[in-house]
Backbone:
């Protein structure tokens, strides 16, 4: 799993759902959770939060233009990769952290990914889990 | 409501330990005592049943005083309406299953309870067999049925399932839950199995060196960190299959086997048999009504 540490800056709640904005250094990340500030102690503005997402949920784009519904876009550079017949694993540098993406071999070939390439890693809002800091 | 406020000095491997307990159990609740060996779990059950005497304190059950050391009240074990089941079945070897149950009847008690328990524990086919002819799981069902003959209000289970294999264990858990609900028992179980505790318990009490370190719902007590995932289960790793840099982790959750994709870093500290918390976003699962299942597909 990918783990990033950030700080909660905004919580919008409707019913039992909350849309939470967390800043990881200068990059905003949003997550939607079935929790509210009323019932969960960690959901408070300015609280530190741990962001968790699965490698297989990280979408990669190169030279991206246009509008896309994916809200979380992380500017990364490619550190290394491992190629399989079906899947590829790409290790990315994002700010001070490393994140991993697993995409299909077909997608990897289409993107013609090389070391040091600039890519955007995108994660859907509903794929991001939050945890209180340990 | 059971109220327990007791103290007892115990000799443990590391020296003298003071078992100092203060907790309440609501009627019809299923509560598990969890903790390392020597933390005082069995002594707690024995003090509740009256088999071991507390140094000091009170036990009240539905406002009835079972123990009050200041007032010198100490109800004998026979007068406490308690059933106690151990890992050791303690059946009479020379008696059949039915005779073992009959032996537990009180003078003048209605014998219909025997038929009822033989049916509930699915022992009718085995009722004329002697314990030596039974498997471990069957013996434990007989032990459980026998403990319930006198219609106790409280059932104490001291690791009754630790001697049977995993499959039998899951079945016995179901028998225990059935009995717990049917007879509206207040049940206290000693267990080390976190998956079992999640399945069975309303509350779990964690004992460490004679004191209660945690007391709450299993998910509150065992989630080492609170992940926002609302789709969470505890399971046991059965197998890890490696495919390149991807691992397929096969996990037993209750009676179901699920497969989970994990990276090498995630499985570094994981071995077969380990207990794991499985969490996912509640947005991912797909719900399908069972009587109209579409062609199954691997997702």
Residues:
């Amino acid at each position: 799993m990918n783990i990033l540490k950030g700080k909660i800056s905004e919580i919008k709640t409707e019913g039992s759902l909350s849309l939470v904005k967390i800043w990881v250094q200068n990059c905003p990340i949003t997550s939607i959770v079935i929790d509210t500030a009323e019932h969960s102690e960690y959901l408070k503005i300015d609280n530190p939060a741990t962001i968790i997402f699965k490698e297989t949920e990280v979408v990669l784009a190169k030279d991206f233009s246009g509008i896309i519904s994916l809200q979380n876009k992380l500017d990364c550079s490619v550190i290394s990769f491992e190629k399989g017949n079906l899947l590829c694993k790409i290790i990315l540098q994002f700010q001070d952290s490393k994140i991993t993406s697993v995409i299909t071999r077909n997608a990897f070939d289409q993107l013609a990914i090389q070391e040091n390439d600039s890519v955007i890693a995108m994660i859907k809002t509903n794929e991001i889990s939050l945890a209180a800091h340990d | 409501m059971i109220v327990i406020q007791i103290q007892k000095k115990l000799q443990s491997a590391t020296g003298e330990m003071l078992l100092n307990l203060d907790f309440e159990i609501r009627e019809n609740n299923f509560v598990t005592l969890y903790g390392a060996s020597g933390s005082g779990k069995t002594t707690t059950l024995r003090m509740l049943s009256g088999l071991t005497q507390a140094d000091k304190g009170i036990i009240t059950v539905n406002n009835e005083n079972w123990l009050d050391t200041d007032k010198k009240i100490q109800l004998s074990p026979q007068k406490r309406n308690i059933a106690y089941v151990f890992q050791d079945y303690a059946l009479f070897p020379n008696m059949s299953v039915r005779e073992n149950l009959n032996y537990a009847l009180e003078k003048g008690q209605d014998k219909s309870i025997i038929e009822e328990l033989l049916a509930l524990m699915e022992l009718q086919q085995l009722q004329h067999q002697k314990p030596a002819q039974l498997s471990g799981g069957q013996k434990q069902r007989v032990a459980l049925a026998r403990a319930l003959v006198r219609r106790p209000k409280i059932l104490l289970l001291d690791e009754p399932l630790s001697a049977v294999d995993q499959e039998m264990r899951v079945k016995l858990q179901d028998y225990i839950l059935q009995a717990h609900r049917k007879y509206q028992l207040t049940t206290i179980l000693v267990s080390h199995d976190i998956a079992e505790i999640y399945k069975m318990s309303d509350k779990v009490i964690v004992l460490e060196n004679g004191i209660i370190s945690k007391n709450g719902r299993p998910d509150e007590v065992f989630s080492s960190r609170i992940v926002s995932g609302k789709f969470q289960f505890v399971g046991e790793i059965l197998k890890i299959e490696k495919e390149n840099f991807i691992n397929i982790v096969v996990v037993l959750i209750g009676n179901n086997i699920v497969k989970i994709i994990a990276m090498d870093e995630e499985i570094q500290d994981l071995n077969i048999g380990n207990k794991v918390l499985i969490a996912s976003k509640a947005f991912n699962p797909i719900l399908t009504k069972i009587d109209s299942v579409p062609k199954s597909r691997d997702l």
In short: The CA atoms of residues 128 and 160 of chain B lie 23 Å apart. Chain B has a mean pLDDT of 88. Chain B has two domains: 2-222, 231-292. The helical segments of chain B are 41-49, 97-103, 112-120, 136-148, 166-182, 194-200, 218-222, 264-267.
